[in-house]
Amino acid sequence: MDTTAASVNKTALNPSKFLSAKMWITITVVLFVAIFFVVSNRIYNSQPAKVVVNTKNLDAAQYETLDKVMGKKEAGSFFTAVLPELKDQVMEQDWISQVDIERKWGEGIVITALPREAIARFGSEHLIDSQGKVYKPVTESELLQPGLIMLQGDADQSTLIMQQMQQVNQWFAPLEMQVEDLVLTPRMTWAIKFDNGMRIIVDNEHTSQKLMNLSQLLQNQLADKKDNIASADLRYKNGFVIDWKANVEETTPSSSTNDEAKSQPPSKENIVEEKVTGTAAQEASAEESEIPL
């Protein structure tokens, strides 16, 4: 009986078997970690991730254009793709206003873009949004959208031009007049055509005050004659000049601020010869050549 107990104790306390079990556990753990590292590394640095352009917010032409552009970009793998760099590449398309990029497992790198919304045409080939950003549309058909105002001028002045259009529309809204064509010339002269056909030309001195004064006069003193006015020249320090429509029997223009001007006979300085012009740009050019600023 003592012999059996001694044999059991000897087996249980055998250090070589204990060390052997510990070694195998260690080897197993090391192998597991190594395999996990290799597999993870292969997944992390796998084939380049698929770049997917979301069709949301985009029409067919915009989607096709962006998908073609981004299809040529190297995004890296699903995990290594640098999303801010991809965002910068998308924003190189000036017709895009905002973009959101995210990793979606099973899909790839998903790009959701928001195109700019035009409020007017800018020149013959560009559009402008509410922030004053001038951009070239994806297709020329976007230039033909109904209801777009025509703005013209230096692209560097686009924000100023857009803000002036919005301000003028606000001032003349009570008269149910909206800007149809607005030009800022290199000499900083504004030429405005409204949707009722009336044209206004004004210089860059006290521009806002002159336009507001005219709006008030058209609502009050000149209310009954508003529809007979072809154009108004506001580039005078002490008043302005009205050009009446051809079928109206009016011979003398009005002045808003100088009573003396009313009593003076018509002259080169206080009348505007009647003209037939096609656009606000043409009128601005013609007026500038006739009356020095």
Automatic annotation (TrEMBL):
The residues the entry assigns to the signal sequence are: none
Which keywords annotate this record? Answer: Cell cycle, Cell division, Cell inner membrane, Cell membrane, Membrane, Transmembrane, Transmembrane helix
Concerning Gene3D superfamilies, the annotation shows: Cell division protein FtsQ/DivIB, membrane protein fhac
Q: Which ranges does the record mark as transmembrane?
A: 23-40
GO annotation (BP), single: cell septum assembly
Superkingdom of the source species? Bacteria
Biased segments, Polar residues type: 249-258
Q: Where is this region: Disordered?
A: 248-293
The UniProt record lists the Cell division protein FtsQ/DivIB C-terminal domain at 123-235
One Pfam family this chain carries? Answer: FtsQ_DivIB_C
Q: Could you tell me which PANTHER family the record lists for this protein?
A: CELL DIVISION PROTEIN FTSQ
Q: What is this protein called?
A: Cell division protein FtsQ
The species is: Psychrobacter pasteurii
Give the gene that encodes this protein: ftsQ
